[in-house]
Design goal:
alpha/beta; Rossmann fold; 2 domains; PSMG2_sf; Proteasome_assmbl_chaperone_2; PAC2 family protein
């Protein structure tokens, strides 16, 4: 059951962005991306609904927390919460303005039971809100070096999205978390969905991993044509990478392992370079220009 805090919001061209803590969220990169969107656009976002955790969570696995809220002690129960932020209108060439759009942020803990019912409730609310597009975010542990750009894999079963946003049809086979189950539920419900997953270096996966969070947000900027304030996060990502560099310099075994991963990554990039056709280069350059244009038309956080 979904519990509402006030009335259902009246939204403009809403898109839902979902992330779930736990198995799907290495380094908390995905959940921190959703948190960043809430803070960047609206201070903390406006939470308007939450699932009744009694239906989906084992409190001996995900224990409630006690915290001081408004000068009194309060039990905070694990659940999935829904908030909304409005991405501001951006300036277009010729002093025109594009309409703002609302982002429905779905952030919660991976449920312990009744996953199909969980997905049905989330999708039911999405329909009621008029959500026409859903994006799920995830992160996984991988043999990737922290010194190279964070790989972000994009997938969608929607052929139009595959052509428009340069994402691939899903091919993964194996165990899945709630994110994978939710993706299938969206597909069967006929709601267009894309999924983006960041690869987190397994040897430095202790959260937070701001570089992976930043990579997910950059991908969201591209596909949603947004400009997300990320100045502070970019600085945190640089500090994080510098800290891991220091670790690798002071630990010979870690340093050697990182160099091995760098060599593997560079060899893979070199092997792929003949396939970097003029069309692919042009597509990447166009994405870069769009991103730069968006940033010139919106203010970064101070």
């Amino acid at each position: 059951m979904i519990e509402f805090d006030g009335n259902m919001p009246d939204l403009v061209d809403p898109v839902a962005i979902c992330a779930f803590e736990g198995w799907n969220d290495a380094g908390e990169a995905a959940s921190n991306a959703v948190k960043h969107l809430a803070e960047a656009y609206a201070g903390a976002g406006r939470m308007f609904a939450a699932l009744d955790g009694e239906d989906y969570y084992d409190y001996q696995v995900h224990r409630p927390m006690v915290a001081a809220v408004d000068d009194r002690r309060q039990v905070i129960w694990p659940t999935t919460r829904f908030s909304v932020v409005r991405a501001p209108a951006r300036l277009l060439p010729g002093d025109a303005h594009e309409e703002p759009r609302d982002l429905v942020l779905v952030h919660g803990v991976e449920p312990n039971m009744r996953w199909r019912s969980f997905c049905e409730e989330v999708l039911g609310l999405a329909r009621d809100l008029g959500v026409g597009q859903i994006i799920t975010l995830g992160a996984y542990l991988a043999d990737v070096p922290h010194t190279r750009p964070t790989p972000v894999t994009g997938t969608s079963s929607d052929e139009a999205y595959q052509a428009l946003f340069d994402v691939e049809p899903p091919t993964y086979e194996g165990p899945v978390g709630i994110t994978g189950v939710f993706q299938e539920a969206c597909h069967h419900a006929g709601i267009p969905l894309m999924s983006f997953w960041a690869a987190v270096p397994h040897y430095v996966a202790h959260p937070p991993v701001p570089k992976a969070t930043l990579a997910l947000l950059r991908r969201l900027e591209d596909v949603l044509d947004l400009s997300v304030p990320t100045k502070r996060l970019a600085e945190e990502a640089q500090s994080w990478e510098a800290g891991v560099d220091e670790l690798a310099e002071n630990d010979a075994e870690v340093g050697e392992y990182v160099r091995t991963l760098e060599e593997q990554r560079d060899n893979e990039d070199a092997a792929d370079s003949p396939e970097a056709s003029g069309e692919a280069i042009a597509r990447e350059f166009e994405r870069y220009l769009r991103r730069q244009e968006r940033r010139r038309g919106s203010s970064e956080e101070g």
